[in-house]
Amino acid sequence: MKKIFFLTAIFAFLNCQVFAQSPADDYQKTPRSKQPPLPSVNTIRVKTAPTHGFFFKPSLSIEYNAPEVSGGGTNTDFKTSDDLFHQLREIENIALGFNFRLHRYLGFNANWVQSDLDNASLQDVGALSRKANFRIDQYNFSALFYVPLVENLFEVFAEGGVSDMTSKLNYANASGVFLERKAHETTGLYGAGFQLTLNENNAIRFSVQKYYGKLALLDSHYSTVRIGYLRSF
Question: Which of 41, 142, 155, 214 could form a cystine bridge with 148, CB 3.0-4.6 A?
Fold first, then answer.
């Protein structure tokens, strides 16, 4: 009888010890994964485009190129006779190229354009049996020097570089004889323009270029006016 009472007492004591442990103690003893502390306001940084120092920002450009011939007598009447849709289809007067922005104040430009111009007369040739056609392919390489007026929105720039031109002049004289002349020349160019930034990757650009000297086949001055779109990536 004493043994039964003793065993019962031990069993009751052990049960009391087990149930005496509080849930809070168990929670404290349970291993927990360590969570990183939340960032403070001082550690949060928003990524922004560099505005000072050198960087590399390439862009593709597409621009409508309006050529102008001047200072060559009747040769100044060379104009684009095709409508805009024909020009787009034949890629005429459409300048395609690249722009590489390296600094807030500096960038480089490379593009190609072909122009097709017609004229009912030709200086020092006399009457024609059909319109004269002047076609020019040119590659422009230039540096752009930017001056921001409204930060990240509006800037003006000056342009200077070289242009490599290959041109061809076709015409038929009064007797109906078809003649063709060709020329290749490299000349300097200078110009100016402005750029409107729509957002980080899109911009609109307007510019004017003038080319040194005269075109070899037309003995005339040559300039272009461009307006187009830049897509950065």
Answer: 155
